[in-house]
Write a structure and sequence with these properties.
Strand order of the largest sheet: 10-11-12-9-3-13
Helix content: 10-25%
Number of strands: 21
CATH topology of the largest domain: Gyrase A, domain 2
Number of helices: 10
Largest sheet: 6 strands, mixed
CATH class of the largest domain: Alpha Beta
Structural class: alpha+beta
Number of domains: 2
Oligomer: single chain
Radius of gyration: 20 Å
Length: 364
C-alpha cells in the first residue's frame, strides 16, 4: 500500500494492521460510508497477497492441492480452499486462469507461507510459484451502482458472471476487471492494475463518471456481516467447510492433496456437526461469547458488529447442528457477554438483501 499511502492520508485515512500489512481501517465515518455503498457505490483497496503460478504443469499441480476444480478456460476463476490433513481450512483463495499463468489471491499474510509450502512439493513437475503482491494494486468496487460505475470508465464490456474477468483499460492504465462473488451482498468488481498505476486508477474509480465513496476494513466488515458472508480470519480458519455451508468452495468428487496425503471428504459430505446462523441483539457481543439454548451451551459468537442498515447489533454464531435445525427466524437464544446473559433472536441470512447474493451465504 506504500504507493497509495499519501493519497489515503489526504483523504483522512486511519489505519490498522491485517496479516502483517497496513490497510485503511476507515476515513472517519465508517457507518456513513457503509450506507453510501448500500445505496450507491464505494471503492476500497483489497489487501490480497498475489501468487503467480507458471509452467506446463501449473493447472494439474494446483488442482491436486485445492478443494475445488481449477478452471481450464482463460478468463475464468474459482473460489477454493486449502485443507489440513484433518479436513480443516488452512486458508482460502481465488484462482484465476490467465492463460499462460494462474493468479492466486490469498488473504493478507497467507501468500508467502503458501508459496513456500507449494514450492517444497513440486518435485519434478514443471511449476514455478512467485509471490508478486507488491507488483499489483487491487481495488474493490461494490454497491447497487457498481456495474454502472465500472462500465462508465472501463474500455471493455464488464463481465456478467461471478469470477469471470476481462482485460482492458481505465484511462491510460491497463487493468483487469473481475466480477466478484458479491461478498458484500451487492454487485461487485475487483480492478487489478500495476502498482505504478494505482493512484491514477483510484482517482478514476473515485471521481470519474459516478462518484464512488472510499471505504476501509471497518465498512467491509459491516457490509459482509449484513450479507451473511463468512470471512477467513473470523469464521473460516481451522473450521470444517461443511459446518459453514461452503458447498461452493468444495468439489466433493475430486481428491485433494495436502502434502502427500489425500484428504477424504466423505466425512464432510454428510450431516454437519455445527451450523452458522445469524443473531440480532441489543448490544454487540465479543467474539467467543457463549451462545446458550436455555441452560445448555450450544455454541459461540464468531463475529458481531452494529448494523448501520438495521440500526441494531448483528452477529454470526456457530452452534450445534441439532440446535440450529430446531431454530427458526424469530426464535430466542441467549448470549453471555460482559458478565450477563443477553437475549438474542435468530435471524435469517442474509440480514440485509442487496443487489446480489453473496456466494458464501451458508447453504446446508
Amino acid at each position: 500500500m506504500s504507493e497509495l499511502t499519501s493519497l489515503y492520508d489526504d483523504h483522512g485515512a486511519l489505519y490498522e494492521e491485517v496479516g502483517g500489512r497496513q490497510v485503511v481501517a476507515h476515513y472517519g465515518r465508517p457507518e456513513r460510508a457503509h450506507l453510501a455503498v448500500r445505496n450507491g457505490v464505494g471503492v476500497t483497496e483489497v489487501p490480497y497477497d498475489v501468487l503467480i503460478v507458471t509452467g506446463d504443469d501449473r493447472i494439474a499441480y494446483v488442482d491436486n492441492a485445492v478443494s475445488n476444480v481449477v478452471p481450464t478456460t482463460e478468463g475464468s476463476g474459482v473460489y477454493s480452499l486449502l485443507l489440513t490433513p484433518q479436513g480443516r481450512i488452512r486458508t482460502d483463495f481465488y484462482i484465476y486462469n490467465g492463460g499462460e499463468r494462474l493468479l492466486v489471491f490469498t488473504p493478507p499474510g497467507e501468500g508467502e507461507p503458501l508459496a513456500e509450502e507449494w514450492r517444497e512439493k513440486t518435485f519434478i513437475q514443471d511449476v514455478t510459484i512467485d509471490v508478486e503482491t507488491d507488483s499489483f494494486v487491487i481495488f474493490g468496487v461494490h454497491g447497487p451502482k457498481a456495474t454502472e460505475k465500472v462500465a462508465s470508465v472501463f474500455s471493455e464490456q464488464t463481465p456478467d458472471q461471478h469470477l469471470q474477468f476481462v482485460r482492458g483499460s481505465m484511462g491510460d492504465a491497463g487493468v483487469t476487471v473481475i466480477r466478484t462473488d458479491a461478498l458484500a451482498g451487492e454487485e461487485g468488481y475487483e480492478v487489478v492494475c500495476r502498482a505504478s498505476d494505482g493512484r491514477d486508477v483510484f482517482d478514476t474509480l473515485e471521481n470519474l463518471g459516478m462518484a464512488a465513496v472510499p471505504f476501509g476494513t471497518h465498512t467491509w466488515n459491516s457490509l459482509t456481516l449484513e450479507a451473511g458472508t463468512p470471512l477467513f480470519e473470523s469464521e473460516l480458519r481451522e473450521q470444517v467447510p461443511n459446518n459453514l455451508g461452503l458447498g461452493n468452495a468444495v468439489d466433493y468428487e475430486k481428491g485433494c492433496f495436502v502434502g502427500q496425503e489425500v484428504v477424504s471428504r466423505v466425512e464432510n459430505r454428510g450431516r454437519p456437526s455445527k451450523q452458522l446462523i445469524g443473531l440480532t441483539l441489543d448490544d454487540v457481543p465479543e467474539a467467543g461469547s457463549a451462545v446458550a439454548d436455555g441452560e445448555s451451551s450450544v455454541g459461540e459468537i464468531l463475529r458481531a458488529t452494529h448494523s448501520p442498515s438495521l440500526k441494531q447489533a448483528v452477529a454470526l454464531a456457530l452452534i450445534e447442528y441439532g440446535t440450529a435445525e430446531a431454530c427458526s427466524p424469530g426464535d430466542s437464544l441467549t448470549v453471555r457477554f460482559r458478565g450477563e446473559d443477553r437475549a438474542a433472536t435468530v435471524a435469517a441470512l442474509p440480514f440485509v438483501s442487496g443487489s446480489d447474493d453473496s456466494a458464501r451465504l451458508p447453504r446446508y
